[in-house]
Design a protein that fits this description.
The complex is a heterodimer. Chain A is α/β, with parallel strands linked by helices. Chain A contains 13 helices and 16 strands. Chain B is α/β, with parallel strands linked by helices. Helix content of chain B is about 35%, strand content about 15%. In chain B, helix 1 crosses helix 7 and helix 3 packs parallel to helix 5. The chains are: A alpha/beta, B alpha/beta. The structure holds thiamine diphosphate, iron/sulfur cluster (SF4) and magnesium ion (MG).
C-alpha cells in the first residue's frame, strides 16, 4: 500500500496518526471502550492484539484481556462474556479462523453481536502468510455479517460502525471485518482518529435487554430445540440479516452526520464507473493496482471502472445490479477459490452471477482468480482482464468463464 | 472509570451446611428434565445449585445434562443457565466471569459477587475440553467453578467410551466380541489429581460423589467461597451406561469409594485432605474387593477372573505404590536399586 503523501484535510478535533490497518482497528476498539478481548497468535491478525495489548498496558483502554490457549477458546470466551453484557472483540486468520469454526457457527443463533477482525490469510497447506479470502468466507452462509476494508481509515471507521450495527437490537448478529493480510494489516497510512465524545454520540452502550444472562433475569439460553423450533430460529436469523440492510444504511448516514466524512454508499466504492464500458469488481486492497491500471487504460481511451465491494453479507444485490447492468462486460476478480463451483469460478463472481439472474440486462461476466496466497496483483493482470472483458463485450458473450491470472501454467 | 466503582473481587461467603437438616429448602433445579430413572448426574445438578444459591449463573456443555435437561420451553433451571459447546466449559466459565468482572469494574453493572459454575461431562471435560479447563485454572483473577460430572462415558450419544471410561467396560464403541473380549484397554485418567498437581495457583480441587450429599454440597460451597478458578470431579453412577437397576445408584456410589476405585479428597491451597471412607482406607481400613462393585454392573459382565484380578491389581497400586495414595501416581526411586545402578 502506498502511504498518502498529502494529508487529507483534518477536522479540527481529530488526531491524525500514521498507523497500520491493525493499529487503526485497535484505535477504534479503544474508542468503542470494549470490555473483554481475547487473543491467540497467528499472522497477520495478531498485530491487532499487539496494538490492543499496548493500549491496555498504557492505560488507554480498560478491558479484561485474555490470551487464550487456542482460537476455539478465544471465541467461546468472548461469546460468553457478551451474553452477560460485555462488549467484546476477537478475531483470527486462516487456519486459526478454521480452528474456531464450531464457535463461529453458534454465535448467530445465540444472537451474540461480537465484532471480529479476520486478517485474511491463505489456508494451510502449503504454509503461506499471504492474503486469500477463503478464511472469512467460511461463514458466509451462517448469519455472520461480512465486510472488506481497504484502508486504515476505513479500518477505524468500520470498527465503530460494526459495533453500532451488530449491537442494534434489530440485528444482534456477529460481524467480521476482513482486512487483507500484510497489504492492509501491516501497511501504514495517515488516519484520522476522532475524539471519544464524538464516538459516544455515534455509538450507544451495548444493551442486551431481556437476553441478558444475569441472576436478575434468570433465563435459559440455547436449550435443545430440535425439529420443534429450529426452523423458526433459523428464520429469525434470516429476518435479522434482512433488517441489517436498513441498519447499515442508517449507521453510515449517522456516521457522516457525526464525523463529517465517510461514504454515501455503504455497500461498495465506485471508481470511474459513470461512463464505464467495462466494470471490474473486487474486494479489499486489490483496488490499488486496479485503480492505477484503470487510470492508464483511461489514458488510452478505454472506459474502464471499478466496483470495490465493501459488504458481502448482507449482499447488496439490487444496488450492485443497478450499476453492473449498465456495463458492456463485467470482470470479477476473486482473491479466493471455490473448487467445483458453477464454471469453477470464484465466490464473488458466482454471487454476482446469481444477483444478475433476474436483471433485465445481463452483460457478459468473466471470472478471474488472482493474487492467491498473497501474490501481487500486477498492472499486467489488470490490463489482461480488461482486454478479455472487451473481447466478451464485443462478441456479446464470454467463451471462457473463468481465467486464472498471474499463474504459472 | 475504574475508580468510580466499588468493585471488589470478593466471592459469596457460603458457610458449610452442618448436617442434612440444615440444608436450605429452596431448589434451583426443579422439574422439567427428562433424565433416566436413577440418574445420579441429575441429582448432582440439583445439589450443585442448592449449594450455590440463587445468585449464580450456570453454564453447561453438551451432553446428557444439556440434552435431557433443557428441552425448549421446559427448563428445570431456576437460576440463569446457558449451553456451551462440548469442549468449552473452561472457556464458558472464564468468559462469563471476565464479562461480569469487566462490567462491574467499569461501573457498567452493579457490583456483587455472582457465582459462575460451568459443568461438563467426562467426554466434554476430560477429553475434548481439557485444554480449556487447564487454561481457566491458571486465570486466578476470575472466580469460577468447573464441575465435571463423570458418568464414565459419552452417555448422551449412546454410551461410547471416553478417556474416563474404566478399563474393559462394555460401551457401544467397545463391545466384547469373539476375537477380542476387551476392546477398551486404557486406564482412566486421574483428572482431579492432574488438575490439582498441574495448576499451582488453583486454590481448590475436590472429588465428590452424590451418595455423600452434604459433603458434596459443602465442597461446592467451599470452592465458590475460596474463589479464583476451582475444579470439582464428581463420580456419577449412570444406570443406562453402566447397565444396572436404577435403584442401585446410591449404593454403587458408595461401593466406588469403599473399593478404593474412586477416592474422596480435596486439595485446598496445596493441602490434601481425605474424606470419609477414603480417609479410613488411607488410615489402614481394608478396601472392599473391586469385584463387589464391578459385578453389579452389566458393562463388566464379560469380565473373567483374569480381568477382575488385573483391575484389582491396578487399584492396589493406587493405594500401595503411589507417592500420594489415590492422588499422585509418582513413585519414589527405589533406594536399593539406585545404589545398585550407581556402582
Ligand atoms: C464438537 C462436538 N462433537 C460431538 C458432539 C456430539 N455429542 C453430543 S453430547 C456428546 C456426549 C458428551 O459426553 P459427556 O461430556 O461425557 O456427557 P454425557 O453425555 O455423558 O452426559 C457428544 C459426543 C458434539 N455435540 N459436539
Ligand atoms: S444416560 Fe446416564 S447420565 Fe444420561 S440421563 Fe441416563 S442415567 Fe443420566
Ligand atoms: Mg459422560
Amino acid at each position: 500500500m502506498a502511504v498518502a503523501t498529502t494529508a487529507a484535510p483534518t477536522a479540527s478535533d481529530e488526531k491524525e496518526l500514521l498507523i497500520s490497518g491493525s493499529e487503526a482497528v485497535a484505535e477504534g476498539l479503544a474508542l468503542a471502550d470494549i470490555d473483554v478481548v481475547t487473543g491467540y497468535p497467528i499472522r497477520p491478525y495478531d498485530t491487532v492484539i499487539q496494538a490492543i495489548a499496548k493500549k491496555i498496558a498504557n492505560g488507554q483502554l480498560v478491558a479484561e484481556y485474555i490470551v487464550a490457549e487456542g482460537e476455539h477458546s478465544q471465541f467461546e470466551i468472548v461469546k460468553h462474556a457478551s451474553t452477560v453484557g460485555a462488549r467484546v472483540f476477537c478475531g483470527s486468520s486462516g487456519v486459526g479462523w478454521a480452528y474456531a469454526m464450531e464457535c463461529l457457527v453458534v454465535t448467530p443463533p445465540l444472537r451474540v453481536p461480537m465484532v471480529c477482525l479476520v486478517g485474511n490469510r491463505a489456508l494451510d497447506d502449503p504454509g503461506a502468510f499471504g492474503v486469500e479470502h477463503n478464511d472469512a468466507l467460511f461463514v458466509r452462509d451462517l448469519g455472520w455479517m461480512l465486510c472488506w476494508i481497504d484502508t486504515s481509515q476505513e479500518a477505524i471507521d468500520t470498527t465503530l460502525i460494526a459495533y453500532r450495527v451488530a449491537e442494534d437490537r434489530r440485528v444482534f448478529l456477529p460481524l467480521a471485518i476482513s482486512a487483507d493480510g500484510a497489504f492492509l494489516t501491516h501497511s501504514q497510512a495517515l488516519t484520522l482518529v476522532p475524539p471519544k465524545e464524538k464516538v459516544d454520540k455515534f455509538l450507544p452502550r451495548y444493551d442486551r435487554g431481556d437476553l441478558l444472562l444475569h441472576p436478575d433475569n434468570p433465563i435459559t439460553v440455547a436449550p435443545q430445540a430440535n425439529e420443534d423450533w429450529v426452523i423458526e430460529i433459523r428464520r429469525q436469523n434470516d429476518e435479522a440479516m434482512k433488517r441489517a440492510v436498513a441498519v447499515i444504511e442508517e449507521a453510515y448516514a449517522d456516521f457522516r452526520k457525526v464525523f463529517g466524512r465517510g461514504p454515501e454508499n455503504p455497500w461498495f466504492e465506485e471508481y470511474m464507473t459513470d461512463d464505464a464500458e467495462i466494470i471490474l469488481v473486487g474486494m479489499g486492497t486489490i483496488s490499488l493496482p486496479m485503480k492505477v491500471g484503470i487510470r492508464t487504460l483511461r489514458a488510452q481511451g478505454k472506459k474502464v471502472g471499478l466496483v470495490r465491494l465493501r459488504w458481502f453479507r448482507p449482499f447488496p444485490t439490487e444496488k450492485l445490479v443497478k450499476v453492473l447492468s449498465r456495463a458492456k462486460a463485467i470482470g470479477v476478480v476473486d482473491r479466493d477459490y471455490s473448487f467445483g463451483s458453477p464454471f469453477h469460478s470464484g465466490v464473488v463472481a458466482n454471487e454476482i452471477r446469481a444477483a444478475l439472474y433476474n436483471a433485465e440486462k445481463r452483460p457478459p461476466l468473466l471470472s478471474f482468480i488472482c493474487g492467491l496466497g498473497g501474490r501481487e496483483v500486477t498492472l499486467e493482470d489488470v490490463y489482461k482482464a480488461t482486454d478479455l472483458c472487451y473481447n466478451a463485450a464485443n462478441s456479446g458473450k464470454s467463451e471462457a468463464k473463468t481465467l486464472w491470472l498471474g499463474v504459472r501454467e | 472509570m475504574a475508580d468510580a466503582t466499588t468493585f471488589t473481587n470478593q466471592t459469596q461467603i457460603l458457610e458449610p451446611f452442618r448436617g442434612i437438616k440444615k440444608v436450605t429448602i429452596e431448589e434451583y433445579f426443579t422439574s422439567g428434565h427428562r433424565t433416566c430413572q436413577g440418574c445420579e448426574s441429575a441429582l448432582v445438578m440439583k445439589l450443585m445449585v442448592k449449594a450455590s444459591g440463587p445468585r449464580t449463573i450456570v453454564l453447561g456443555s453438551t451432553g446428557c445434562m444439556y440434552v435431557a435437561n433443557t428441552t425448549y420451553y421446559t427448563t428445570p433451571w431456576v437460576v440463569p443457565w446457558m449451553h456451551t459447546q462440548l469442549g468449552s466449559s473452561g472457556s464458558a466459565a472464564l468468559g462469563t466471569a471476565a464479562g461480569l468482572k469487566a462490567l462491574m469494574k467499569k461501573g457498567k453493572m452493579k457490583s456483587e459477587p455472582i457465582n459462575v459454575i460451568a459443568f461438563c461431562g467426562d467426554g466434554g471435560g476430560a477429553d475434548m475440553g481439557i485444554g480449556a479447563i487447564s487454561a481457566t485454572l491458571t486465570h486466578k483473577e476470575y472466580n469460577s467453578l468447573i464441575l465435571l460430572y463423570d458418568n464414565e462415558s459419552y452417555a448422551n450419544t449412546d454410551i461410547q467410551l471416553s478417556g474416563m471410561t474404566p478399563y474393559g467396560a462394555h460401551t457401544t464403541f467397545s463391545p466384547p466380541g469373539k476375537a477380542h473380549r476387551i476392546i477398551h484397554k486404557r486406564w482412566k485418567k486421574n483428572m482431579a489429581g492432574m488438575m490439582a498437581a498441574g495448576h499451582p495457583e488453583c486454590r481448590y480441587v475436590a472429588t465428590v460423589c452424590a451418595s455423600y450429599a452434604v459433603e458434596m454440597m459443602n465442597k461446592v460451597r467451599r470452592a465458590l467461597t475460596i474463589g479464583g478458578p476451582t475444579f470439582i470431579h464428581s463420580l456419577d453412577p449412570c444406570p443406562k451406561g453402566w447397565d444396572y437397576d436404577p435403584m442401585l445408584s446410591h449404593e454403587l456410589g458408595e461401593l466406588a469409594i469403599e473399593t478404593g476405585i474412586f477416592p474422596l479428597y480435596e486439595v485446598e491451597d496445596g493441602q490434601l485432605r481425605y474424606y470419609g471412607k477414603t480417609k479410613a482406607i488411607v488410615e489402614g481400613r481394608a478396601r472392599k474387593p473391586v469385584r463387589e462393585y464391578l459385578l453389579k454392573q452389566g458393562r463388566f459382565a464379560h469380565f473373567t477372573e483374569e480381568d477382575l484380578s488385573y483391575f484389582q491389581s491396578k487399584v492396589d497400586e493406587m493405594w500401595n505404590k503411589w507417592e500420594v495414595p489415590g492422588v499422585v501416581p509418582f513413585r519414589r526411586v527405589d533406594a536399593a536399586r539406585t545404589a545398585a545402578t550407581n556402582t
